[in-house]
Amino acid sequence: MATLSQTKELFRRAEAVCFDVDSTVIKEEGIDELAKFCGVGDAVTEMTRKAMGGSMTFKTALTERLSIIRCSREQVNKLITDHPPQLTPGIRELVERLHERNIKVFLISGGFRCIVEHVAAQLNIPLHHVYANRLKFYFNGEYAGFDETQPTAESGGKGKVISMLKEQYGFKTVVMIGDGATDLEACPPASAFIGFGGNVVRQQVKERSLWYVTSFGELLKELEKI
What we know:
Blueprint: H1 4-12, E1 16-19, H2 30-37, H3 41-52, H4 58-69, H5 73-82, H6 91-100, E2 104-112, H7 113-122, E3 130-133, E4 135-137, E5 143-146, H8 157-169, E6 174-178, H9 181-184, E7 192-196, H10 203-208, E8 211-213, H11 216-224
Parallel strand pairs: 1-2, 1-6, 2-3, 6-7, 7-8
Antiparallel strand pairs: 4-5
Helix pairs in contact: 2-3, 3-4, 6-11
């Protein structure tokens, strides 16, 4: 059984660090923001809570939430323009420091690629380091579902992405950082998991995390020890 000091050690010598996006790298849950923007906020927020608490499968929750929202391409673009995702304080500095140390940074999200790419661009994370769900639209811009073949559309999808990264890049030490049940489940195959409660504290995740932080400053401090 790993310990807190072993988790910190794994973080300090990680070859790759994978971040969840909603409520971790950014302050909000992208799908809830999209729902509010489309006028169906309350119904969808309740379902997000259930999904994050682990009481229904991720794909079921995603399918049901999107069938309520039914956003058009135009609405998604307008959301990004009018209400761009808000970065969590300290994330820019942390990613910068990881990049300086030649540690690869990936964003693995159950949210939507169109929003996550916007976040990646702000953090200088290459777009081929982004794994997220793709919304589908008909030629007239109306909602046509989502790409169910993406690993991030499934429960356990983040773990699948990490396994794939280890295979593709030959990484031995990969650390996952996030706020939710789907992030915690990604370890293993991740070498270590760091729970993040800077935007929202999910009790089940806090209790099961060997290392739980509420600010990215705590992780920056750890990197200073190298």
